[in-house]
Design brief:
- By secondary structure, the chain is α/β, with parallel strands linked by helices.
- The protein folds into two domains: 2-299, 3-Layer(aba) Sandwich (Carbamate kinase), CATH 3.40.1160; 311-457, VC0802-like, CATH 3.30.2130.10.
- Helices cover 38% and strands 21% of the residues.
- It has helices at residues 15-30, 45-58, 65-83, 88-112, 117-124, 126-141, 171-178, 210-220, 254-262, 274-278, 334-344, 370-382, 411-421, 447-457; strands spanning 2-7, 34-39, 146-149, 187-191, 194-196, 202-204, 225-230, 251-253, 282-287, 296-299, 311-324, 349-354, 360-366, 388-401, 426-431, 437-443.
- Helix 4 (88-112) runs antiparallel to helix 6, helix 7 crosses helix 8 and helix 11 (334-344) crosses helix 12.
- The longest helix has 25 residues, at 88-112.
- The two termini are 29 Å apart.
- The relative contact order is 0.10.
- The protein binds adenosine-5'-diphosphate, aspartic acid (ASP) and magnesium ion.
């Protein structure tokens, strides 16, 4: 079979974990499978790059660029010397070149005191640029021929939205012609998280974007399966850091995972399902530290599940906007005016609810977009179309996910009765037409409690009865 295997930051954090990655790839190669690898930055490196880029752009004093570069050098070279000893000179030299470029760029940003979205994108790919070299060297040390490719060389062509770029359909053919021919002879190690525009300008695909890279490249090479290797046994009924008795879900549908990741479940990037779904490629989430565990299989999943509710998640970096005004009643085009005003400013509306009186529309958006969204809506207030726009940052959105909810009577009642009994006040409710998701808004502090109450109510920590 042809596999695309993506290894996340925790799977490539140090020499011991890189060895596990090599063992996994070596084992499947030995069985005759073709493998392309996508890697993330070492754990925490992207956060550090974002922090230092912002610091040097704003700092009047000389920022600590050199100590930062030294820490990256130590981190990557120590892993290299342990897992790729024969390549310390060759790959060590390449690491030095990249560190030198990075240092020069940080100094330039500092001198100009200017950090554009374009330069930030370039800077924050250095975690992947460094780490891919180490992982590829480790594979070669094991006798597996390997080359390193950046996302652009691998063929990922994107839109121009820096920090949140999306893959264009042309990527598929480019990836097929660039990556696929390599697979019979070697394992390409492709840097996740990045692509480039038609003009060759580097872009990033959003935080956790290596999952998205994996799906785009997996689709491009016509992978039989895409495997996302991480640090938990699979997709779980809820975030295990919040719900310690969360259980691994053995099989879940593309749609359910899309909803789950859209509402904040960190285990997958929200866009990483679509490319696989389009080509019906099975995606598996597996644990690098427990590879014999079957993990979670993500499939089309037309068949109805025996469980009504499958997973719960919440996202707290959201804001609630209330738009009210009697002028809205019965007046065609008000909703259109609201959504056009927001769309023009590229505000992503995550949830919508409208009272039957039509005098009130509530929206949930990303918190980072609140200022721009309220400014856009104030124009409608000035124009007399709506009376008032208010907002609240102290909220979070909880999503209850499961394709079994479609047609199952009483699920909503169960959810809101349990929350009421637990003393959680619900501020807004929304149900998508797919019926895979019922989401609601509560005060930020109530989010974790709401998830816990519903995890118990639907007995998600118990074994599947399917
Ligand atoms: P990687 O570095 O492999 O990309 P991430 O940290 O991005 O790993 O994602 C894996 C983490 O996602 C897990 O360690 C877990 O804490 C978190 N997580 C949140 N929600 C879920 C969920 N529903 N199922 C599994 N993991 C989850
Ligand atoms: N390194 C990037 C991040 O931390 C991409 C990824 O890990 O998927 O967001
Ligand atoms: Mg991730």
């Amino acid at each position: 079979m042809r596999f695309l295997m993506k290894f996340g930051g925790t799977s490539v954090a140090d020499a011991a974990t890189v060895r596990k990655v090599v063992d996994i790839v070596w084992g499947y190669r030995k069985e005759g499978h073709e493998i392309a690898v996508v890697v993330s930055a070492q754990r925490g490196v992207t956060d550090q790059l974002i922090a230092i880029a912002n610091e040097v752009a704003g700092n009047r004093n000389t920022p600590a660029i050199d100590p930062f570069i030294s820490s990256l050098r130590v981190r990557h070279k120590s892993v290299l010397s342990e897992v790729g000893a024969d390549f310390t000179a060759e790959i060590g030299g390449q690491i030095e070149e990249r560190l030198c470029e990075l240092g020069n760029m940080l100094h330039a940003v500092h001198n100009l005191r200017e950090l554009t979205p374009r330069s930030l994108d370039y800077l924050i790919t250095y975690g992947e640029r460094l780490n891919s070299l180490v992982v590829s060297a480790a594979l070669r040390q094991q006798g597996i021929p390997s080359v390193v490719m950046d996302g652009c060389e691998a063929g990922i062509l994107t839109t121009t939205q820096h920090g949140e770029a999306m893959a264009l359909p042309e990527s598929e053919g480019r990836i097929r012609s660039r990556v696929q021919p390599l697979l019979t002879g070697m394992v390409p190690v492709i840097m996740g998280f990045m692509g480039c525009t038609e003009k060759g300008i580097l872009t990033t695909l959003g935080r956790s974007g290596s999952d998205y890279s994996a799906a785009i490249i997996g689709a491009g090479i016509d992978a039989g399966e895409i495997w996302i290797w991480t640090d938990v046994d699979g997709i779980m009924t809820s975030d295990p850091r919040l719900i310690p008795d969360a259980r691994v879900i053995s099989s879940i549908s593309y749609l359910e995972v899309m909803e789950l990741s859209f509402f904040g479940a960190k285990v997958m990037h929200p866009r990483s399902i679509e490319p696989a779904m389009k080509k019906n490629i099975i995606v598996r989430v597996k644990n690098t530290f427990n590879p014999s565990h079957p993990g979670t299989t993500i499939v089309r999943g037309e068949k109805r599940d025996s469980r009504v509710v499958k997973a719960l998640t919440y996202i707290d970096k959201v804001a609630l906007i209330n738009i009210c005004g009697a002028q809205m009643i019965g007046r065609p085009g008000v909703a259109r005016a609201i959504f056009s005003a927001l769309a023009e400013k590229e505000v992503n509306v995550m949830m919508i609810s409208q009272g039957s009186s039509e005098a009130n529309i509530s929206l949930i958006i990303e918190e980072s977009q609140l200022t721009i969204a309220t400014q856009a809506l104030q124009v409608l207030v000035k124009g007399g179309l709506v009376r008032e726009v208010t907002s609240n940052r102290d909220v979070c959105a909880v999503a209850v996910i499961g394709s079994g909810m479609a047609g199952a009577k009483g699920t909503g009642g169960r959810i809101f009765t349990a929350l009421g009994n637990g003393g959680v006040n619900v501020m807004m409710i929304s149900q998508g037409s797919s019926e895979v998701n019922i989401s609601f808004v509560v005060k930020q502090a109530d989010g974790p409690k709401a998830v816990r109450i519903l995890h118990d109510e639907f007995r998600l920590s118990e074994e599947d009865h399917a």
